[in-house]
Amino acid sequence: MKVLLTGGSGFIAAHVVERLLSRGYEIVTTVRSPAKGSFITSKYPSARISIAIVEDISQPSSFDDVIKKHSPLDAVIHTASPFHYNVQDNEKDLLNPAIMGTTSVLRALKQYGGDSVKRVVITSSFAAMTNPANPPDVYNEDAWNPMTWEDAVTTKNPQVAYRGSKKFAETAAWDFIEKEQPLPFTLTVLNPPFVFGPILHELKSLDSINTSNKRALNIIQGKKHEGPIGSSLYVDVRDLAEAHVRAVEPKYAAAQGKRIFMTAGPFTDLYVAERIREKFPSIRERITDDLLQNLGEKSAPMKFEVDNSRSKEVLGMEYRSTEETITDTVQSLLDHAKAK
Ligand code: NDP
User: Fold this and answer.
1) How far apart are the first and last CA of the chain?
2) Name one GO molecular function term (predicted).
C-alpha cells in the first residue's frame, strides 16, 4: 500500500509514520521544508519514504503537484493543520489553513488522483465536538461544536479560534464528500481530544513542544494552572496513530464513512502531578503541596460521560492505561530535556 501522509513533521504524524512503516507500507509525506524532510528520512534510512514540500496548506492548489507526481496512491492520511495558540489573525493563522488544507487535498485527489485512492482519513478533533457551555450528558459522534463562523473569526481567545478551525475544517470535509460524488474514495474522520505520549518528531527545544504535550510539560516544570482548564479527555498518541493506519486498511472497512471519537477517557492534571511524585524521584520536589492543591482545585470533575464504543467496534481499539500514557510521556519529556 502507498500512503500519502500530510504534515509528517508533526507530533501525531511521526507516530503514524512509524506505524505505517511497521506494516511495510510505502509513504509519501509532506513537510514545509527540506530540513524537516531530512530529519524523517535520516531516521529511517532504508524505508520507502518520499518527501514532498508543501510550505503552506492555506493555498487552494497546495496539494496539486504532490498528487500529480506521486499517484497512483492507495490512501491518504491528512494530519496537517495548525495547532498552536500563537495567533494574530484567526482566519489567516488558524481557520484558512485548517479548512483550505482539508479541501485542497480532497480536491486535488478528485482532480489528479485517478481512481486508485480508496480511503481518506482526516485528523479532526474533540474540538469539533465540544460544547462547553451546554455539554450533552454523553459525548459521542453525534456531538458538534455549535460555534458560528462569526464567533470563530472574532473571538480573542486563540483556544476558541482553534476549536473553530477544527469544526469548520471537518464540516468542509463532509460537505465535500456529499457534494462531489462520485468519488473513488471514502472518508473516515478521527476525533481525538488531548493527545499525550512519547515524542518521535524533531524537537529542537522543549520551548517548541507541541501544544498538547505542553500541558504535561507545565506540570513537570512545576507550573500552576492560571486560567480555566479546558478539555480533560485524552488519548495516547500510539493508540491514535494505530487508529489512523487501521482506518486505511481493508480489514477495517466498517470505519469507512464514519466519524470516530478517539478517547481513552478522562484525566486530570492532579493525576499527572501525583504520578510524577510517585514515579519520578528526580523531579519529585517540583510537585509541591501548593501545586497539588492548585491542580486539585482546577481539576474539576467532568459533567458528562464519554462513549468511545464506535472506536472499539469499527477499529478494534484497545486503549492503553492512563498510567502507561502519563509515565511514558513524562519519561520522554525528561529524556528530551536531558539531551538538550
Ligand atoms: P503538530 O503541531 O505537532 O503538527 C501539526 C502539523 O501540521 C505539522 O507538521 C505542521 O508543520 C503542519 N502545519 C501546520 N500548519 C501548516 C501550514 N499552514 N502549512 C503546512 N503545514 C502546516 O500538532 P499535532 O501533531 O498535535 O496535530 C496533528 C493534527 O492532529 C492536527 O490536525 C491537530 O488539529 C490534530 N489534533 C491534535 C490533538 C493533540 O492533542 N495533539 C488533539 C486533536 C486533534 P510545521 O511543524 O512545519 O509547522
Assistant:
1) 37
2) methylglyoxal reductase (NADPH) activity
